[in-house]
Amino acid sequence: MKIVVIGGTGLIGSQVVKNLEHEHDVVAASPQTGVDTVTGAGVAEALEGAQVVVDLSNSPSFAEEDVTRFFRTSTKNLLDAEAAAGVQHHVVLSIVGTDVIDSGYMRAKVVQEDLVRSSGAAWSIVRSTQFLEFLGRIADSATVEIAGPEVFGFDEIVRTDLSDHAPRPRARAAARDRQFVA
Ligand SMILES: NC(=O)c1ccc[n+]([C@@H]2O[C@H](COP(=O)([O-])OP(=O)(O)OC[C@H]3O[C@@H](n4cnc5c(N)ncnc54)[C@H](OP(=O)(O)O)[C@@H]3O)[C@@H](O)[C@H]2O)c1
Predict the structure, then answer these.
(1) Is the CB of 30 within 6 Å of ligand 1?
(2) To test the ligand 1 pocket, which listed residue (56, 109, 110) has its Cβ within 8 A of the most ligand atoms?
């Protein structure tokens, strides 16, 4: 089977390519390899004869306007090219909680998911948790200065707050993790 991995040179894409290439004809597609889903350059050529496309691309900028433009343009171009090439299945990696977490990046992922759902193609949206490589960045984004008579580590005080407010909404999000249309 020919599988095209869009973003096949990225953090997750390169691992997916490595795992698939034992059994399939795999193309790692990205600007580095001459395939750009924003401009459309090289996309039709890469998709020729492909049965499955796995979209693991990411925006170079995470500013809301940029990332929204990236996922909207890239996903539309890709889905149109897949329809023209007769690709049978579109797989896209998304993130657990995209529709409940309030961030510009997550809103852009919702735009991407909605385009895939309404495309009329056969699709799989796989919602993954954030990768371990991102733990440092996530922790850094939540670093705060705390003043007062009692001193807590951020992990400690968040854990206390979470245990005081069960059940958490994340159980509902997890139930919607994976959606498949054959
Ligand atoms: N990181 C996480 O924790 C996480 C968790 C869940 C889901 N996801 C999702 O997984 C996907 C990949 O994330 P990642 O962290 O692996 O990204 P990444 O390491 O930043 O890799 C991005 C990939 O996208 C390619 N790309 C950039 N612009 C492109 C374009 N115009 N056309 C085609 N390809 C383009 C890059 O190609 P070049 O190398 O040529 O620049 C690279 O291969 C994203 O959609 C993200 O939302 C990530």
Answers:
(1) yes
(2) 56
pLDDT confidence tier of residue 112, bands split at 50, 70 and 90: very high
Domain count, the chain: 1
Q: Is residue 122 part of a domain?
A: yes
In a domain, 102, yes or no: yes
Rg (CA), the chain: 19
Q: Which atom of ligand 1 is nearest to the CA of 71?
A: 45
Q: What is the pTM of this model?
A: 0.86
- Measured distance CA(128)–CA(92) in Å, rounded: 10
Q: Which atom of ligand 1 is nearest to the CA of 8?
A: 43
Q: Residue 64: which CATH number?
A: 3.40.50.720
Rounded to whole angstroms, the Cα distance separating 107 from 100 reads 9
- Mean per-residue pLDDT over the chain, rounded: 89
Q: Which domain holds residue 43?
A: 2-133+175-180
